[in-house]
Amino acid sequence: MLLTVSKRLEFSASRRLFVKEWSDAENVAAFGPETSARHGTGRNYVAYFIFSGVVDPTTGMLMNISEIKERVGRVLHDGYDHKFLNADNKTFAGIPPTTENLARQLFLDAAPLFRDANAQLVGCHLSESEDRSATYFGNGALESNYWFEFSAARQTTSPRLTPEENQKLFGVATSPFGHGHNYRARLTFRGLADAGGLPQVRSTDMEGCVESLRSELDHKNLNHEVLALIDQPITTENLARYIHERVCEKVRIDRVRLHERDDFFAEHWNGGKYFLGMQVSFSAAHRLHTDQLAAEQNLALYGKCNNPLGHGHRYLTEATLGGPFDERSGTLMDFVAFQTAIAEAVEPWRDKHLDLETEEFRDKPSTGENIVQALWPRFDSRLDHRLVRLRLWETMNNRFTLRML
Q1: CA 67/CA 60 separation, integer angstroms
Q2: Strand ranges (DSSP E) for 216-366?
Q3: Of 35, 139, 186, 356, which residue has the fewest beta carbons closer than 10 angstroms?
Q4: Residue partners of 90: CB distance under 8 A and separation at least 6
Q5: What is the pLDDT of residues 281-291, one digit of tens each?
Q6: CA nearest 274: which of 241, 318, 235, 234?
Q7: Does the global pTM surpass 0.70?
């Protein structure tokens, strides 16, 4: 099992994407029309600094999140926030400040600041907009993410099931009149960071790929108007696979995530792997405190979270499951069963004070690290032991993730 803690920080900057040695046409092909912004164009960036290590049994923390904010904050202030990156950050005098290059350099700038810490920086995820993000990992791997949207209607059925089986599995979604979704798809390309800082996928290739998919899927009835899907199970899992296959015809892609609603998604990966993810929230109170430290030490370590009267959060969990894909039904797991299982997992903690009303935190502090570890068996046992990743947001800025290795 791997436990990570992610801290979310924001900064604003301007940039220009271009390579001096290239022609205007080559720059446009690689970076799109933004390359013509000769004096820079701006982004509101969101960066996630991801740490891994061993949880201190006394404090219940892998790393003090306030310390992450303080140390990384200096990096952002000095080299990135409210800067024209091409001129104000020497790294980007020679390479374009793409999302990928920024994620890589943020990692390289921040990692040395934590050499004396118990946890180490293992990745940096950078989002520049709703449609573009990238992740750089400590092992040199790099992921580029592109999002696009489309709307479509469908009747959720599988031609390989009997009408009775379809009705039992998909319920009201089998209505012959169909229903619709506003889909949001993420295309992820993975490789090693290029020493020259060039994009993994050219802008023109990405635009052509997305426009082709939109033309085929947007405002269509998936059961009847997409020829390649006729006689196929029309499920979120199968649609993610289809998008993956279509992109692979033009560009090598690692995986596709498809949201049919904000709190539910299916993924298809290279190698024929499928995953389903779903979110559920719960509200609870807690106090960060350990009897193994003196009152002054608790206050110094946990700050305002050590309030004797407690405080609370609206926690958000996200469970991702894997396992065998049923080709006959086109599903990984029954949607309603998945939804019910994760709701049941958090129900005993809903509107409770975790330290005073649950057994899990009578002898250990209710940190995010300990909460996600305590939730894992609750989720996994209800999901036929198919859980592969569990995420917990304490706030939008603090995320704790436990995953299978």
Answers
A1: 15
A2: 220-221, 255-261, 264-269, 273-286, 311-321, 352-353
A3: 139
A4: none
A5: 999 999 999 99
A6: 241
A7: yes
